[in-house]
């Protein structure tokens, strides 16, 4: 079973602290959880993130996190889905999980008549060579935290001051580039059914 929580807009640091706390306190009977939310503007560096990928430091704070991957940006209008899963209990490897998350995102975007694909060696989901969703996870004691970020209807300009996910000149896109007036709330409801289908066992 998976418990889904809609948390609204929350500061990155406090949610990260809560994810770590939940993961460290888990036992074999702890429920898996999915947290759906947005963040105020923030850059986050991956565990092995290289500082040179922050091209133009600005007023947006930078937080060094413990997820995989390089630097990315979170802000209002982006749906963040954090996965607190016991993948050891589910007999699921991390590569299988990443592939499943990419498939969920591709199927979700198909509902908006957006054709999305993956890239070998570059986790996430892309539309015509532009990135629309990022994936970054951490595994601790067989359990995951962190997750995915899907651009819905946000200000993409802060991405111009970084090499998103460590890729120079990578362009970002969002659902609102293809569909009129999408909302994070609506996309949350749509993505929820996919997680229930795949993880509610």
Automatic annotation (TrEMBL):
E.C. designation(s): 2.3.1.181
Binding site for substrate: 67-74, 134-136, 147-149
Protein name: Octanoyltransferase
Catalytic reaction annotation: octanoyl-[ACP] + L-lysyl-[protein] = N(6)-octanoyl-L-lysyl-[protein] + holo-[ACP] + H(+)
Annotated compartments: Cytoplasm
Any matching Pfam family: LplA-B_cat
Gene Ontology molecular-function annotations: lipoyl(octanoyl) transferase activity
Site residues (Lowers pKa of active site Cys), renumbered to this chain: 131
Protein source organism: Legionella spiritensis
Residues covered by the BPL/LPL catalytic domain: 28-201
Enzyme class, UniProt record, top EC level: transferase
């Amino acid at each position: 079973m998976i418990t889904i929580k809609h948390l609204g807009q929350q500061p990155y640091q406090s949610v990260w602290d809560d994810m770590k706390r939940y993961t460290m306190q888990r036992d074999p009977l702890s429920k898996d959880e999915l947290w759906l939310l947005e963040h105020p503007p923030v850059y986050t560096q991956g565990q092995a993130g290289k500082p040179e990928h922050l091209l133009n430091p600005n007023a947006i704070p930078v937080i060094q996190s413990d997820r995989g991957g390089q630097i990315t940006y979170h802000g209002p209008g982006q749906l963040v889905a954090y996965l607190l899963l016991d993948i050891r209990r589910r007999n699921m490897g991390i590569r299988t999980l990443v592939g499943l998350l990419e498939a969920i995102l591709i199927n979700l975007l198909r509902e908006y008549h957006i054709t999305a694909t993956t890239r070998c060696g570059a986790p996430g989901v892309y539309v015509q060579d532009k990135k629309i969703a990022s994936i970054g996870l951490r595994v601790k004691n067989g359990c995951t935290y962190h997750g995915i970020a899907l651009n819905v209807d946000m200000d993409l300009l802060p991405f111009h001051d970084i090499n998103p996910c460590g890729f120079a000149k990578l362009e970002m896109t969002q659902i609102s580039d293809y569909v009129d007036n999408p909302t994070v709330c609506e996309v949350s409801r749509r993505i929820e059914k996919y997680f229930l289908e795949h993880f509610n066992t």
